[in-house]
Design a protein that fits this description.
mainly alpha, Rossmann fold, Arc Repressor Mutant, subunit A, five-stranded parallel β-sheet, two-stranded antiparallel sheet, about 65% helix
Length: about 725
């Protein structure tokens, strides 16, 4: 895990020296500090600046969790997603049945870490409850929260951020004006000071005003603000003065926008979190805003500081500040167009999910993973909208099922289970939309298998199979059969696994179905055969999978095929070949956050290392694998096939090192972070001539010497479940 996920500053931080000093002092003294203040006062910027300054004091770094993206400004807000958002911010991947709260508590229990939680006000109760529990159970955790109101948790220190003083406000206005104009030096400073006073020193209001200075003088800005204040005072006397000021600044900026700019501003409010240009062109174009005008109008909103541009793993994205988006949402509602725009937003992200599912089986697999990651807040919003109306429940089932590649392939099982359970529990689909429910059912069965929940898996897969038979849906029936075969494999019933998976593969061929799931089925069949002694047949199956993956650019399934081929190489004593294959396997699984594939590769790599004679490094790798199993679930899946090779490795390393040597090496590996363990696994390239210096065995022992005791390399049995 990286020490920090704090975003880089895109422009210079101005002023606030005293406030940063005081906030730093509070963070040192209290474990929960909440920065509160009116919208636009600069709470988030100050908090991030301070967190960046103090991050070296935290051995395990600083992490930012943005909760505002959990919902747009209309529709329900799911409090259960708070814990999922924190899991995401911490970069955790967990395949077990543990809830995200338990995962968080266990992960943070031994860490010294600063967690920045921003934008919690719309989910304040859920956030307060969760943070209270985490602070109680995790003594090394410090939380810096940012919102418009306190959390009201015991031990909380509240830091009320006031607007900028006159000098800082003027400096900020000058800085942002210079950014917009290239250079800016007003002849008379008094109008500048007056503008800062009229805007109450609120940074967002100042930045909006600076965005207008390429077109208007300071005096003209003041005149227009005076007109706006008089209008506002006539109808909103009950509002707090600073709230009035901010609404005045935003409303004034809104009035200065062209009709196209106002319309785009309102329509952009339906997005949750970052969005790209293509999404804007589809969702926001139409009556009053032709698609060919969207780019230019978006550029104008960007120039006026109403929209911000940011870089992401998926490329450039845009977002609106929450305060600006809230104003746009009010305007959209007043236009009577909010529901239509939410549906267009949903339709775009359903289309994006469909595209991603198709492109997952292509050279763009890594891009698909990144795109889906960035789109997750908007996908959540789309799922929420689908679940609001009974007639749209089939859409929720379809969307939750379509994202199988993300839930299973990118380490999102817990959240995937959340949405699948909600979608399937919301009601049955009409007969004409039964296909959506069938897809959600087999995906739920798949996810439940990966989570080690065979009861739920069997229930979902049997229901899918029965319904698919009645509906004549041969594709869904094949997937249900396939996943039941996976379950048999996990249960050490190799003949049944081979029969079911083989039957599913035959159905796929007849139907012309070819994708990552189908290829994974072939790898799974290879494992069932290998466990029954047919190593040659298993290698032939995986060699074919590898060839197809190379042709199609598919990497996720390729990693599992490489794993089986590495097992075969190890069995035949080709240790260098096995290590080469496993290195590629580790790199791919780590890139996709696929912990199941990764832990299996680590287990086999430990055995390769023991065979090479480096017993100490084998023990280190076994320790690292043991830590990964904590996140994957039941160690070795409770399977005899899985336990045999691990036991062999432990025996070889233990005999070479003795108890006094094996224990410390194992604990060293268990203490490694995921990134450290991967780096160590990939950097090790051993020379047989120096193994004796590293606690190695007297001579390598090929894995085939243990085949009579180990009917199949059980560690690879998790392949079918991915």
């Amino acid at each position: 895990m990286r020490r920090s996920n704090l975003p880089a500053e895109l422009n210079r931080f101005v002023g606030r020296a005293a406030e940063q000093h005081e906030l730093t002092r509070l963070i040192e003294e209290f474990r929960l500090v909440t920065v509160v203040g009116v919208g636009g006062v600069g709470k988030t910027r100050l908090a991030l600046r301070t967190a960046t300054a103090v991050q070296k004091r935290y051995a395990d770094g600083v992490r930012l969790a943005e909760l505002a993206v959990l919902s747009g400004f209309s529709g329900p807000r799911d409090p259960e997603l708070v814990a999922h958002a924190l899991v995401e911010a911490l970069g955790l991947t967990d395949h077990t049945l543990r809830g995200p709260r338990e995962v968080l508590a266990e992960h943070l229990a031994e860490l010294r870490l600063l967690l920045v939680v921003d934008g919690f006000e719309h989910l304040v109760d859920a956030c307060a409850e969760l943070l209270r529990e985490l602070l109680r159970r995790c003594p090394g955790l410090t939380v810096l929260a940012v919102g418009r109101r306190p959390l009201r948790v015991d031990g909380e220190a509240v830091f009320a951020l006031a607007p900028m003083d006159g000098a800082d406000a003027a400096a900020l206005l000058a800085e942002r004006a210079a950014e917009a104009l290239g250079r800016w030096a007003p002849a008379d400073p008094e109008p500048v000071r007056e503008l800062c006073r009229r805007l109450d020193g609120i940074p967002l209001a100042l930045e909006l005003a600076a965005g207008r200075l390429p077109l208007l003088s300071v005096e003209q800005v003041l005149q227009r603000l005076d007109d706006r204040f008089r209008l506002l005072d006539g109808g909103r006397r009950g509002a707090l003065p600073r709230h009035r000021t901010l609404r005045t600044a935003i409303g004034w900026s809104h009035e200065l926008c062209t009709p196209e700019e106002r319309l785009l501003w309102a329509r952009l409010s339906v997005f949750a979190g970052p969005f790209d240009l293509e999404a804007v062109e589809y969702v926001c174009s139409g009556d009053g805003l032709p698609v060919e005008r969207v780019l230019d109008v978006l550029g104008e909103l960007l120039a006026q500081s109403l929209v911000a541009r940011e870089e992401s793993a998926a490329g450039p994205r845009y977002r609106m500040l929450a305060t600006v988006a809230a104003y746009g949402a009010e305007w959209l509602t007043s236009l009577g167009d909010a529901e239509r725009m939410r549906r267009r937003h949903r339709d775009w992200y359903m289309g994006l999910a469909t595209w991603c599912e198709l492109e997952w089986f292509s050279p763009r697999q890594a891009e698909v993973a990144a795109v889906t990651d960035v789109a997750l807040p908007n996908l959540r919003a789309a799922l929420e909208l689908c679940l609001e109306s009974p007639e749209d429940v089939p859409l929720a089932q379809h969307l939750a099922g379509t994202l199988w590649f993300y839930w299973a392939g990118c380490g999102r099982l817990s959240e995937g289970r959340h949405w699948l359970d909600r979608a399937l529990g919301a009601g049955p689909a009409p007969a004409e939309q039964e296909d959506a429910r069938l897809k959600a059912l087999w995906v739920l069965g798949y996810v439940a298998i990966l989570q080690g929940d065979p009861t739920a898996a069997v229930a979902a897969l049997h229901e899918c199979g029965e319904r698919a038979g009645a509906a004549g849906n041969a594709v869904a029936a094949a997937y249900a059969t396939h996943r039941l075969g996976c379950l048999a494999l996990l249960s050490d019933d190799m003949p049944r696994a081979e029969e079911l998976i083989g039957r599913a593969l035959e159905s796929y061929r007849e139907l012309g179905e070819l994708n990552s799931n189908v290829l994974m089925g072939q790898v799974e069949l290879a494992m069932a055969r290998a466990f029954q002694g047919d190593l040659e047949g298993a290698v032939a199956l995986c060699a074919e999978v590898r060839e197809i993956c190379e042709e199609r650019g598919e990497r996720w399934t390729r990693a599992y095929a490489l794993y089986v081929l590495a097992y075969a190489a190890l069995t035949e004593g080709e240790l260098a070949r096995a290590r080469e294959l496993l290195a590629e396997c580790v790199a791919i699984d780590h890139a996709f956050r696929d912990l199941v594939g990764l832990v299996l590769a680590f287990e086999l790599l430990a055995l390769v290392t023991a065979g090479e004679g480096d017993a100490r490094e084998a023990a280190v790798l076994q320790g690292a694998a043991t830590r990964l199993w904590d996140s994957v679930g039941l160690p070795l899946f409770g399977s005899g096939h899985f336990n045999g090779p691990r036991a062999l490795c432990e025996r070889q390393a233990g005999e070479a090192l003795g108890e006094a040597g094996y224990g410390p090496a194992f604990r060293e590996g268990r203490a490694l972070s995921l990134d450290e363990a991967v780096e160590r696994a990939l950097s090790e390239r051993r020379d047989p001539a120096i193994r004796g210096d590293r606690g190695g065995t007297a001579a390598p022992r090929p894995f085939r010497t243990a085949r009579a005791r180990v009917p199949g390399h059980a560690e690879a049995r998790r392949l079918p479940h991915r």
